[in-house]
Amino acid sequence: MAKLAIIGGTGLTQLDGLKILRRETVSTRWGEPSAPLLVGELGDCEVVFLARHGERHEVPPHRVNYRANLQALHDLGVEQVIAVAAVGGIDAELAPGAIVIPDQLIDYTWGREHTFFDGAPEPVEHIDFTDPYCEALRLELLGVAERCGIGVVDGGVYGATQGPRLETAAEIDRMRRDGCSLVGMTGMPETALARELGLFYACCAVVANRAAGCGDAVISMDEIRRTLDSAMAVVRRLLTEFVKSNIE
Ligand code: HPA
Fold it and tell me: Is residue 166 lining ligand 1, measured as CB closer than 6 Å?
């Protein structure tokens, strides 16, 4: 089986059930990843876990060293990445707690180190990014979810914003007109960097709140935390079942 990594986002800074065999504190030519790489076993299968925002959730989305994170996983021999990410729901049917496996994205971020092909000594390369997520991995996740009776939404357009502030209602209106169904702060450049390294990458997005202007109330961090606490239990089950099915 291809070596699998899980990148955990807000609400998933550690992976309960992961039997940690070693912690790898590594450095890459792009600097240090957000946290040590936790190499462990989930079920009986080797999995690498990386906390995107650091082990104490101290790295904000615009300061994550995405290049170091992806390079470190690649250097460890990882081939598949499932990226877990908290998002806001723009589509009316994406209520808090929904789990979405997006199939497209739009990048609204700026000023982030977004490529490994940054000029000499690297040759210039323009990756194909028509379909930003690995369709085979997406379908595998959807298949496992269906077999285990875990409700997930197939497809959606992830709009990646700069953060760390949440969006205005007008920004979300514009994103909806653009075709975005969900909004998060970490999907880019992470997804593109994974493709540049040839990693098979899919996103498991967890709706933490209705996006700005889509719900009745002011968005509260307490509510986001509560929603993520219960939704991440479902995500953990999905990941465990995914890992099990990958070795069967
Ligand atoms: N916007 C951007 N990122 C997010 C949100 C949101 O509403 N909720 C969780 N991550």
Answer: yes
